[in-house]
Amino acid sequence: MRGLFITFEGNDGSGKSSALQTVKKELLEKGFDVVYTREPGGSYIAEKIRELILDKDNLGMDPKTEALLYAASRREHITKTIIPALEAGKIILCDRFLDSSLAYQGYARELGIDNVLQMNQFATEGLFPDLTILVCTRPEIGMSRIKKDERDMDRLELEKITFHNKVYEGYLSIADHFNDRVVVVNGEQSKEEVLETVKNILYPFIKERMG
Prior knowledge:
By secondary structure, the protein is of the alpha/beta class. The chain has a single domain (4-210), classed as Rossmann fold (3-Layer(aba) Sandwich), CATH 3.40.50. 57% of the residues lie in helices and 13% in strands. The chain is built from eight helices and five strands; from the N terminus they run E-H-E-H-H-E-H-H-E-H-H-E-H. The protein has helices at residues 16-29, 44-54, 63-87, 98-108, 113-124, 139-148, 161-177, 191-210; strands at 4-10, 34-38, 91-95, 131-136, 182-186. The protein has a five-stranded parallel beta sheet with strand order 2-3-1-4-5, with helices on both faces. Helix 1 crosses helix 8 (191-210).
């Protein structure tokens, strides 16, 4: 039986990764065969490309170069990690995937969502997630959370608030366009409320598809 491909998306500081880590732990405890992965990254070469993309010394990177690097990383990720796990019947929980490219490069970098989608369809051979949980929060709230963590920010997190506003708008546009698989969660709730909302979406979906 083919596995399930579930992605978690969200603008920076939305709380998606925290919720993802908790549901991963719970699903493993319930006995599900779960693979956690991330983008950019998720395989050896893809992780090397991740270092290049997120390095804050590369602030002047051309937007098209950025988009192509994400697509190249995604191709490696799919062939080395995602497809083998799907064929083995596993549940894949992925922190970011195609929708990130559509929001960040397609919309916020103004390359065009359709252009970036076309580029990535070549890389992915039309692979889409079975379910996408999109955790969104207003950018000023998300960025304030990141700054409170007092950790080093990567190249994209260091962008101006105008860029993060566009990412937020881009995600909402994508959710509307792909409403058959994207479910939006209000990331401005407490961590506990976000987690509960995510679980109420995710667990019934897995039960329906995998029993």
